[in-house]
Each structure stands twice: as structure tokens, then as C-alpha cells.
Amino acid sequence: MAFFRRLMSEWSQEMDEMPEAERRTAKGKAAVATCKQCARYLEPLFKLCKNKFLVV
Predict the structure, then answer these.
(1) What torsion do the CA atoms of 9, 10, 16, 22 make, to the nearest 10 degrees?
(2) 30: Cβ–Cβ under 8 A, 6 or more apart, which residues?
(3) Cα–Cα distance between 48 and 45 in angstroms, integer?
(4) Is 47 exposed, middle or buried (0-12, 13-18, 19+ CB in 10 A)?
(5) Nearest CA-CA partner of 39 in 20, 11, 18, 17
(6) For residue 42, what pLDDT band results from cuts at 50, 70 and 90?
(7) Which of 5, 26, 30, 48 has the fewest CB atoms nearer than 10 Å to its CB?
(8) Are 24 and 15 in contact, with CB atoms under 8 Å apart?
(9) Residue 54 has pLDDT above 80, yes or no
(10) How far is CA 32 from CA 39, 54, 56, in A?
(11) What pLDDT shows up at residue 1?
(12) Measured distance CA(22)–CA(48) in Å, rounded
């Protein structure tokens, strides 16, 4: 879980550091949206792992 949290953190930081000109392009908008969507979709998984409800 720590690996994936770190990976999401680095990806979010990369999106935050993206130049504004690049962020306004279609490709930039899609990249930022994908990052936010992944973070939103992974949060329930992280909560299950944290609460030890997820058994692998």
C-alpha cells in the first residue's frame, strides 16, 4: 500500500508542477483528469487496506 500511495503522490506532484501552457492543452487536461480520477478510484482500496478488511 505504501508503494502505491507514494506512486500516486509522485504522480500528483508531477501534475502540479506541469507548466500552465502544457496543462491547458488537450493532452495536459487529459493527464490531469486521469491522475485525479485514479486517486479518487484508489481511495476506497487504500481504506480497505488500512482497515485490514482486504484479504489477498
Answers:
(1) -140
(2) none
(3) 5
(4) exposed
(5) 11
(6) very high
(7) 26
(8) no
(9) no
(10) 11, 29, 31
(11) 83
(12) 35
pLDDT value at residue 55: 67
As given in the structure block, the three cell numbers for residue 10 are 509522485
Length reported for the chain: 56
All three cell numbers of 9: 503522490
**Side-chain-side CA neighbours of residue 17 (13 Å):** 6
**Amino acid letter, residue 50:** K
pLDDT tens-place string over residues 5-36:
999 999 999 999 999 999 999 999 999 999 99
Residue 35 near residue 15, CB atoms below 8 Å: yes
